[in-house]
Amino acid sequence: MGFEDPRTNSKPVVIREVWSSNLESEFELIREVIDDHPFISMDTEFPGLIFKSAVPYSRERRQSDHYKMLKSNVDALNLIQVGLTFSDASGNLPDLGTGTQFIWEFNFRDFDVTRDDHAPDAIELLRRQGIDFEKNREERLRFRLPGEDPNPPGLAGRLGRVSELLRVSFGDRVYDVKHMMRFCDSLYGGLDRVARTVEVNRAVGKCHQAGSDSLLTWHAFLRMRDVYFVNDRPEKYTGELYGLEVY
Question: Which DSSP helix (H) or strand (E) runs through 147?
């Protein structure tokens, strides 16, 4: 891919908050920058996990069990935020003709802390990081997905469909940092721990804010590529999501 080190860019970074009131204008800006900044890093914030397994994920755990647990959480929980970072081949972010670089954070109103399932410890953590679930609820976006197939396929078919959806939606080169960590000695844990291990600093915002985490994920990916995948290029790990690998 041939990226330069993005940490050498001295321009400050600002998170552009997206709500229902400015959705169209922010999408217009994204349409303007996407051709010159075609590399996209994404992070999401959900209200924790309400279904958990007593067995940590590993190659030994039955894949069908992990899929069912993951799907149960996704089906039951509502999205809170999506963060998007756009970059060019040199690691530069859009500056919109200013002296500032920008990333995006989309806020969704589907989650209601008084009504919806959630993990209380996760909600308290998100509150401490600055997410206000009560304020501006009407200003947030509503998330929509197409209806689920009434005749869902078996596990192999579902995993194949996930892989196909990735390719159709995001192209042939989709990288999951969590999946790639499995092939990197000494890398484990959450995003902040990985960033500390590879010596990448958070450029803006706080942890567990989707915009900030999307940028940290991008910087961590670039550093992982340069440290752990010098000889074994990362392209062989495209199209796989952690826990949904097809062996």
Answer: none
